[in-house]
Write a structure and sequence with these properties.
Largest sheet: 6 strands, mixed
Distance between the termini: 31 Å
CATH architecture of the largest domain: 3-Layer(aba) Sandwich
CATH superfamily of the largest domain: Periplasmic binding protein-like II
Shape: globular
Number of strands: 11
Strand order of the largest sheet: 3-2-1-4-11-5
CATH class of the largest domain: Alpha Beta
Number of helices: 13
Helix content: 25-40%
Number of domains: 2
Radius of gyration: 19 Å
Structural class: alpha/beta
């Protein structure tokens, strides 16, 4: 269990904001609040349905309620580490499974809350003889990158079935394709299965008749684990803890609103042109996730992923999951584990 640490608010109050597959970059004042006005913050985002909490936090005023003056900036989610390293971001929403390895390698961020579950799938052709994850042994699996969250998901699932997934004992042929080309690659027979983030996965199921082999929104133990977390830079967490707390409160309040209003959230994403798709499909996706945010859940996800990746051999074998989480997760004074219904507009 995470031991909650209280942070004292030192100096001038500050705040930042950001979200799922998105980044928040501090403006010229370094994220510090002006004496008489809100804190200017640049929030980067990727056009993904599961970024709904970020979009809602901006459009429905949750950032503003926390004293944040947010400018939304679209950023390629694949370059989170680069953006952090360049000092361009103060906070973002990212996937625990994708960020544990960069955290081990020194990425200067900490996780701060769990936002939602779900949003990754493994697909096979509708007429495939593959009926379970274990049968992917000796098969070709298309992925968008060897360190992608979907790749880590399928490796974790394969490991549980006794299938080798490291360079030393690899029993699956992972082949890299552009994310949007994966459905066509399987249609042409180049691979036997693909990993697919939403909405690519559901669209491929609808258009190609593919079958879902693994869904981390439904299949345990992944369905009980937050896949998308809020992160802030270590600099922000250490020097501006009140700012980090404001970010967590805003994002958690917005996430709970999405949980309670999935169709309205889907419509908002489309109306504001944050994402493509149609309202029925996007609503069904949001409904399939658990948008009941939890600070403790974020901590537990980091611990679980680190523990399993260490056991698999994808990070240092001597890493203890709980100790890893204590080092790379931080809770803040004034932030409840979960938002109350009274905090939701």
């Amino acid at each position: 269990m995470y031991k909650w640490k209280k942070s004292l608010c030192l100096g001038v109050m500050a705040a930042i904001a950001a979200g799922t597959l998105l980044f928040a970059a501090g403006c010229g004042n370094g994220g510090k609040q002006s004496q008489n006005g809100p804190i200017p913050i640049k929030v980067g985002y990727s056009p993904g349905v599961c970024n709904a909490a970020i979009f809602v936090a901006y459009e429905n005023g949750y950032f503003k309620d926390e004293g944040l003056d947010v400018e939304m900036v679209q950023v390629d989610a694949a370059h989170i580490s680069d953006a952090v390293g360049a000092g361009q971001v103060d906070a973002f929403q990212g996937m625990a499974s994708k960020l544990v390895q960069p955290l081990e390698n020194g990425l200067p961020v900490v996780a701060v809350t769990g936002i939602h579950t779900g949003c990754q799938k493994v697909l096979v052709p509708g007429d495939s003889a593959i009926q379970n994850v274990a049968q992917l042994k000796d098969k070709k699996v298309g992925v968008p990158g060897l360190a992608d969250a979907g790749t880590i998901l399928v490796k974790r699932a394969l490991y549980k079935e006794g299938v080798g997934v490291t360079d030393k004992n690899l029993e699956v042929d992972f082949r890299v394709f552009n994310r949007n080309d994966l459905p066509q690659a399987m249609e042409k027979g180049a691979v036997d299965a693909i990993t697919a983030s939403d909405p690519v996965g559901p669209i491929a199921v609808r258009e190609f008749g593919y079958r879902v082999l693994l869904d981390n929104a439904k299949d345990e133990p992944f369905a009980s684990e937050y896949c998308c977390l809020g992160f802030v830079t270590s600099k922000l967490a250490n020097e501006q803890p009140d700012a980090a707390a404001r970010f967590v409160r805003a994002i958690n309040n917005a996430a709970l609103w999405v949980q309670n209003h999935p169709k309205e959230a889907a419509q908002l994403e489309l109306d504001k042109k944050y994402v493509a798709g149609d309202v029925d499909l996007n609503t069904s996706l949001l409904e399939s996730y658990n948008f009941n945010p939890s600070v403790q859940g974020g901590h537990d996800a980091i611990a679980a992923v680190a523990r399993e990746l260490a056991a698999i051999g994808l990070i240092g074998p001597n890493i203890d999951g709980e100790k890893f989480a204590q080092e790379h997760f931080k809770a803040f004074e004034g932030v409840p584990d979960r938002p109350s219904d009274s905090a939701i507009k």
